[in-house]
Amino acid sequence: MRAAIINQFGSSDMLTVVNNHPSPKIEDNQVLIRVYAAGLNRIDFLTRQGDLKGVRGKKFPMILGNDIAGVVVERGRNATQFQVGDAVYGMIDPNPSLSWTKFTQSGAYAEFAVTREETLAKKPDNLSYEEAAAIPLACLTAYQALLQKGQIQPGKSILINGAAGGVGVFAVQLAKAWGANITAVCSERDRELVTSLGADSVINYKEENITDLQRQFDCIYDVAVTTSFSECRHLLTENGVFISNIVNAGNFMSSLLFPIGRMFGFRKFSTFAFVFPSGEDLKTISTMVEKGDIRPILDKQFSLDEIREAHDYSESGKARGKVVINISNEAQEKRP
Ligand SMILES: NC(=O)c1ccc[n+]([C@@H]2O[C@H](COP(=O)([O-])OP(=O)(O)OC[C@H]3O[C@@H](n4cnc5c(N)ncnc54)[C@H](OP(=O)(O)O)[C@@H]3O)[C@@H](O)[C@H]2O)c1
């Protein structure tokens, strides 16, 4: 099959497109997908650079990418949720079972990809394959962070730092759909975008330091990872929660020890987002997409042959919204 592979860690120059990569074989609980479009995420660059070799290994050749939209072409004996021919999308994990670190493997930049069936959901009918591939990892990150950690409900106030990035645009839309009052932090060029997505007020981080704000929030979601719990504690309401998009020793220990801390009167809470593939969560997201509550923001699309340019463009920070790879012409032919 055609695939973009790396044979060593490094810059985007390490990405090579080959025509004869062996197609993946499926286990009983897995499905094989003909990939039409794959989405790029920051984790792809980190993997390519070797920053995640401790959790993702260093077995070459390696195919990067976790976000796919495509069609089921084969299913294992115990994979019964989907029929061959179903249009699906998801954050894939080629591991036959979730690894003990909970880290997924990659494998999306290829004509065929394998994943456990429970990582997938049916593609929303109102989206093209390219649009669908722009959703899974970023939207699941925001969904799981805000629902499970932030417990966002109607009337809660939330500050979203990095509101116009890959994860941030979904965080704003989800928080809006759940009835929160949203303060979005982004640069001036993105003010209009985040307002159109549902932000109630906007702060330009280049002009105003959020730690100087005179307001408090029930939840601060630091998507851009540019601040910390200690810097933002005074911005939290009495039972406020600070969610970082990165796991570090501080927020890991704080998460673990919070129930004990609460017994000693500590109320403000620091925790972290850690995305995991979930077809169930994606099903809810699909319903929200079909209702018009969430839309993906697509920036540029590239072909598989342009994979190096796609990485360079996305990594440069110039993209507004998602960068997507068209793996097959059918991605365009099958637009709704
Ligand atoms: N924990 C998890 O499970 C998980 C999952 C997904 C992503 N992540 C991590 O989350 C982070 C964000 O991911 P992403 O995909 O959203 O990245 P992204 O698309 O690159 O977006 C980052 C956003 O942050 C903004 N930003 C940069 N500097 C800022 C500052 N000083 N203050 C406020 N905003 C600032 C950028 O705005 P400009 O365009 O103006 O520079 C951009 O809109 C990354 O570090 C990624 O690795 C973690």
Percentage of residues in strands: 25-35%
Largest sheet: 7 strands, mixed
Helix-strand sequence: EEEHHEEEEEHHEHEHEEHEHEHEHEH
Number of individual domains: 2
Overall form: globular
Task: Report what the structure shows.
- The chain is α/β, with parallel strands linked by helices and 336 residues long.
- The protein folds into 2 domains: 3-135 and 297-333, Medium-chain alcohol dehydrogenases, catalytic domain (Quinone Oxidoreductase, Chain A, domain 1, Alpha-Beta Complex); 138-272, NAD(P)-binding Rossmann-like Domain (Rossmann fold).
- The protein has 11 helices and 16 strands.
- It has helices at residues 42-49, 53-56, 129-133, 136-149, 168-177, 191-197, 229-232, 249-263, 279-291, 307-315, 330-333; strands at residues 3-6, 15-18, 30-39, 62-63, 67-75, 87-91, 112-116, 120-122, 157-161, 181-186, 201-204, 217-222, 236-244, 269-272, 298-303, 322-326.
- Strands 3, 5, 6, 7, 8, 15 and 16 form a 7-stranded mixed beta sheet that branches. Strands 11-10-9-12-13-14 form a 6-stranded parallel beta sheet. The protein has a 3-stranded antiparallel beta sheet with strand order 2-1-4, with no helix packed on it.
- Helix 8 links the parallel strand 13 (236-244) and strand 14.
- It is globular, with a radius of gyration of 20 Å.
- NADP nicotinamide-adenine-dinucleotide phosphate binds at residues 41-42, 138, 141, 161-162, 164-168, 185-187, 205, 223-226, 245, 273-275, 317.
